[in-house]
Specification:
By secondary structure, the chain is α+β, with helices and mostly antiparallel strands. The protein has helices at residues 17-35, 70-74, 78-82, 123-127, 132-148, and strands spanning 2-4, 7-9, 42-47, 54-59, 91-93, 104-109, 112-117. The chain has a 5-stranded antiparallel β-sheet, with helices on one face. Strands 1-2 form a two-stranded antiparallel ribbon. Helix 1 runs antiparallel to helix 5. It has a single domain (16-148), classed as 2-Layer Sandwich (Beta-Lactamase).
C-alpha cells in the first residue's frame, strides 16, 4: 500500500504465468498436508479466450481426456461458471460432484479459471473429513492472492504440453 495526500492506493502487480503455476502447486501441497491426503488430484488452469477452451496448466491423472470431457465434467458448476457476477478471486464448490465431475473453480482473471477436481471422491465425501475445514485455508489464501494480483495471460502464452 502506498499513500499519497492521505489517500491509500493499492499497487497491483499482475501475476505472471510462472507465479500462478507455483502458487497452485504450493496450494495443492498445503491442502493435502492439512487434509492428511489428496484433496484434489486434478488441477487445471483453463483459458476461455476467443470462446475456445485451452489448457494452460494441468496436473492430474487425465492428461489426454481432460479437455475432451470438459463440457460434461463441468456438470453442477455450469450455472455458476456462466454467472457473470463472479469476479477475479471468486470461487465455487459443487457439493455433489462425483467422479470426473469438477468439484471447484476459481476465477484467475478475465476468461481464466482454475479447475479443481478429485476424480475418486465426491466433494460431499471430502467434506466429511474433519480436517477439510483446515484444508480450505490455503485455497482461500490462493483466492485472495489472485484477487490482489490478477493473472494476465496473452493469447500467445504457451499451451500446456505433456512432459
Amino acid at each position: 500500500m502506498a499513500t499519497r495526500a492521505g489517500i491509500r492506493l493499492a499497487l497491483h502487480h499482475r501475476m505472471t504465468f510462472e507465479e500462478i503455476c507455483g502458487a497452485i502447486k504450493a496450494c495443492a501441497s498445503q491442502m493435502n498436508s492439512r487434509y492428511g491426503g489428496v484433496v484434489f488430484d486434478e488441477w487445471a488452469m483453463v483459458s476461455l479466450e476467443r470462446n475456445r477452451a485451452r489448457i494452460l496448466f494441468y496436473t492430474g491423472p487425465r492428461n489426454d481426456d481432460f479437455l475432451k470431457h470438459f463440457v460434461s465434467d463441468l456438470g453442477a458448476l455450469r450455472t455458476a461458471w456462466l454467472d457473470a457476477s463472479y469476479g477475479v478471486g471468486d470461487f465455487e464448490f459443487a457439493r455433489h460432484g462425483v467422479g470426473t465431475g469438477f468439484e471447484a473453480f476459481l476465477v484467475l482473471g478475465p476468461g481464466l479459471y482454475l479447475i479443481c477436481n478429485n476424480t475418486v471422491q465426491s466433494m460431499d465425501s471430502i467434506g466429511k473429513n474433519p480436517r477439510w475445514l483446515g484444508a480450505q485455508v490455503p485455497f482461500v489464501e490462493l483466492a485472495e492472492k489472485v484477487r490482489a494480483n490478477p493473472l494476465a495471460v496473452s493469447w500467445e502464452t504457451r499451451i500446456f504440453t505433456k512432459p
